[in-house]
Amino acid sequence: MSASVSRPAIPLPLVIIAGCIIAAIGFGTRGAFGLFTLPVTEDLGLTREQWGMAMAVQNLVWGIAQPFAGGFADRYGSGRVLAFGGLIYAAGVLGMAFSPDTLTMTLSAGVVTGVGIAVASFGVVMAAFGRAVPPEKRSFVFGVATAASSGGQFLFAPIGQGFINAFGWQMALVWIALILLLIVPLSLALRGRAESVPGQADLPFMQALSSAWGHGSYRLLVVGFFVCGFHLAFINVHMPAYLVQCGLSPEVGSWTISVIGLFNIVGSLLSGWLGNRLPRQLLLASIYFLRALAIAGFLLLPVSEVTAYVFAATMGLLWLSTVPLTAGLVTLFFGPRYMGMLYGVAFFSHQVGSFIGVWLGGYVYDATGAYDLVWYLGILLGLASAAVHIPIRDRTVANFGMKTAAPAPAE
Predict the structure, then answer these.
(1) Mean residue pLDDT across the chain
(2) pLDDT at residue 269 tops 60
(3) Which of 94, 131, 279, 288 could be cross-linked to 385 through a Cys-Cys bond (beta carbons 3.0 to 4.6 Å apart)?
């Protein structure tokens, strides 16, 4: 047995629309941060590693806060959590605009914005969807939410570059902070929380995590998600600067991020659709393997606008297509009652990978004057993650969270 599905007073289509807009605003803003790499470092005199560290801290704080945000959403309702997160997110981005040095930029862009992203994240949105949507439709709706996030990235990349060109990077961040405040009224549509059913225990955070961690497939899923974060964060933050280093214009860098977001819409929807029809763990293994091939091909060919856009389109298809599959497996394993928290734990691993990818990119560039070593590491990690996902078993953990249940047996 699992948690009963909450029945929101607002019609389900409106819940999904509001959640998708929140996901688009939140992820679109975060996806545009790479556009600020050059103007911020040049204006403030920061090194690439110092800026990369601020973004790395952001990803790590996002990951640390995500399980707690999901846990609060499970217990107190997604709407309240998202509204609070929207306020924090806007405050963090506004603080970035007026940060004069490395320390304040790390605090505003890293700590405050990282917490805001977690609390207003698409992970909390998907937890709400997981409770409101019937099981047979969850993977597809997760794909819709992920596609909406990608749509935000597609829109915010040219919007962010346009703001920078028109107003400068500081006022661009002020305008983006104002847009983030839209999350607060939209969150009203996602009110509600998971309700326990008779016989189900209301497990504390650590007890639920301990029981879930005994499930071997969950452990493999958490480990493999690390690589997704490494790839995404490194490319998102350092790709625009890398293309400028290769002789292309900053506009090509912004459109490359936009193309990733556009094709990610297709990849996310396709992933959600296939997740209801094929073994999710094998789909995940295929995605990571294809990422490794795409990066290898990009490095072997001369960098040009064509190869940049083709690489962006390919990576876009594989970008967040891991998310509906990973979230679907977590919900399959343990049901929707603890989905926000347990997906948040998996996402923490994702963000540790993001932290390393962003920081290592800046460190390697400052040390060697190039990003080549990080690209090669991305290939190796993609192959390793593909191998890790193959043994995962896509089946429900019997009696998870029930009062009479023992911790899930190891596999």
Answers:
(1) 85
(2) yes
(3) 288
Task: Return the SS3 of 399.
Answer: coil
- The pLDDT of residue 4: 43
SS3 at position 42? helix
- The H or E element that residue 254 is part of is helix 250-275
Return the residue matching tokens 């998996």: 346
**15-38, pLDDT tens digit by residue?**
889 999 998 999 889 878 878 888
Tokens 């007026």, residue? 98
pLDDT at residue 9, rounded to an integer = 62
- State which amino acid sits at residue 241: A
CATH superfamily, region 12-192+203-389 = MFS general substrate transporter like domains (1.20.1250.20)
Of the chain, the end-to-end C-alpha distance in Å amounts to 21
For residue 309 the two structure tokens come to 């856009």
Burial class of residue 24 in the structure, from the number of CB atoms within 10 Å of its CB (0-12 exposed, 13-18 middle, 19+ buried): buried
* Reported confidence tier of residue 108, pLDDT bands at 50, 70, 90: very high
Burial class (CB in 10 A: 0-12, 13-18, 19+), 64: middle
Residue 200's φ and ψ, nearest 5 degrees, are -100, 130
Token pair recorded at residue 355 = 């932290």
Q: Among candidates 30, 224, 10, 228, which has minimal Cα distance to 122?
A: 30
